[in-house]
Amino acid sequence: MIQDTATEMEIWEWLKEVPDPEIPVLSIVDLGIVRGVQCAAQRGVTKIIITPTYSGCPAMVVIGEEIRSTMKRHGIEDLVLETALSPAWTTDWMSEAAKERLRAYGVAPPSRLVNIVGLSTEVTAGSIDSEGLVECPQCGSARTEMVSRYGSTACKALYKCKSCLEPFDAFKSH
Amino acid sequence: MQNKKSLFEYVLRLGDSCLILSQRLGEWCGHGPILEEDIALTNFALDLLGHARFWLSYAAELEGVGRDEDQLAFLRDSGEFRNLLLVEQENGDFAETIARQFYFDTWHLAMLEKLRGSNDEKVRAIAEKAAKEVRYHLQRSTDWVVRLGDGTAESKRRMQSAIDLLWTYTGEMLEMDAIDQEMLDCGIGVDLSVIREGWMEHVGKVFDEATLTTPATTWMQRGGKQGTHTERLGYILSEMQTMQRSYPGLEW
Q1: Any CB–CB contact under 8 A between B137 and chain A?
Q2: Is residue B152 packed enough to be buried (19+ CB in 10 Å), middle (13-18) or exposed (0-12)?
Q3: What distances in angstroms separate CA B247 from CA B70, B206, B233, B240, B250, one per listed residue?
Q4: Is residue B26 within 8 angstroms of chain A, CB to CB?
Q5: By the CB < 8 Å criterion, does B13 face chain A?
Q6: What are the tens digits of pLDDT across the range A73-120?
Q7: Is the pLDDT of residue A125 over 70?
Q8: I want to staple B86 with a disulfide (CB 3.0 to 4.6 A). Which of A80, B159, B169, B230 is the partner?
């Protein structure tokens, strides 16, 4: 049965069902694309605030449509999708569990440095480019090399592993 | 309010420069010298298209006559565009594309970093978002200028001729006009004399490293910001706008 109003928590759960169109192992919540949910008071309008990963990300249109159809499936018809640009999206919003799933999918996750005890966040901030910080998602080797900063999508760079010689995608720290 | 009309113009300039450069870079799709460059150039185009959409959507809102970003992009004629003359110049060879990009990126990043402190909330948000991406653009175009300049005799010759060719189009982006001044005075815009200083310094430093000769100060082309363009813009628009002109209101 469909309730008149859904709670904020329910909506967040439903949003986890919406995969990123380009990296389907991650949901839009995992990626930090959803920035806020405002619930409808008694049959009113529900507002969902999203932010683009990259300015020109062509997936945003599809993501908007997916949110609408998912919400509709759960009985929410009156939906306003709002795009917020500030604060600008960062890969720091990606959860640890999401990073693991990304690795299992074959994409090196962004900036593992954040998790290494003893290294400050300032080091992480400047590490966008540093070689060796990106580990091969196939064999785990740190002997990797960037082939191109621009890969198959705006959020990924193309890398090569010097240990197992496999090419792979790395999610850019941003 | 006079300010609102000027802010519309100011935002339109930023949006149009991003849009036209994006369209130019898109011409490289499938023609890049190597696969990685093909992808990089079109990634730049995509980023800039994203920025153009933010700026033009905001411009449309400020204008308040019911036009949207698409109408601004597809239904204006050459004289109504406010982009810099630099970005409408042809792709030429790879060196010319890189020179144009390098001149633009150096200016673009400096502008965005300053606009992050604008007292207009929307301008600030767009600048914050775009600056993160444009940092990569500048890094890459800088790397290429050095690599080609300090490369083979042939790459150096071409890079030098590209920076010389486009130099005359770099004046207007560093020069204040009445709208720039008004936006500066009300705390929204940027002081271009400050941008000029940083621009000259970075460009000079990179040309030195690239063993290139910084072009001599010369007479500069101007007019793009006010709507007087080179004939090249017309060709871009006729290609970019053909679908909406032929089938008004068409949607994918």
Answers
A1: no
A2: exposed
A3: 14, 47, 21, 13, 6
A4: no
A5: no
A6: 999 989 999 999 999 999 989 988 899 999 999 999 986 444 333 333
A7: no
A8: B169
